[in-house]
Amino acid sequence: MLEECYNKLRIILSNESTLSKQNSPSYNPTSHDFRNSFLPEQIKLQDQALEEYRITNNIQFLQNTYPDFFELIIVTKDRPGLFADIVACIYSEGLAVLDAKLIKKGELALDILTLEPDGLTLLNPDESLGRIKKKWDKICSGQLETAKLYQDRLQAYPTKISRDDIMGQSIRLKWENKVSSQYSILEIHVPARKGLLHTITDCLYKLQVSIASARISTIADNAVDVLYLTDENGNKIQDQQRMDLILKELRISLEK
Hints:
The chain is α+β, with helices and mostly antiparallel strands. The protein is built from 9 helices and 8 strands.
């Protein structure tokens, strides 16, 4: 099982290692520009999605399929709560986010997600993507709430992890305001579990915190997330009371 996990991780990160051999810059946790961590053919597909959006003004979903997982590229106009809604939609399909890179391109959001089945669902990227598109159309038209998607999935497949299990494991939160002049950086180290990313994004959305960009990674049983945050006005969050509140509420959400 562990060997299989590392094999998947090697494939996911193969773009970084290949670029490193070419003396290109790879992912740096102090940078929120992740475009330099992709292979040229991946960037070409991302640019295709961006161009299609500019032409059609409609959300774009493109995918790269691999044997045990697939990469989903999403381009749409950015807005508060966008990533939380996307995560709820994906979670409702029984998919887990192994890796995510959120990139802002002007007013557009370019999200690149690496997904795999959560262990309860068989992998069929075409069918999953078709259902995600239909759900997204209903969300945009106001016919469906993402909170209901999340709750319905949770009720159908309840997690077996108890609060005591979570409390016994390490949750580390680190707030950094010195590295970036534009963003507050939040590092989250937490044991991976179903619905974790939705818990994080939903909590931040309710606190009126915007995710400008992010690097989401899952290695074995641990999630390591680096989020670049602003307040509701697009400014860096530097008020100590607000920072303390965000960390407090996030920890409470993670320990539930």
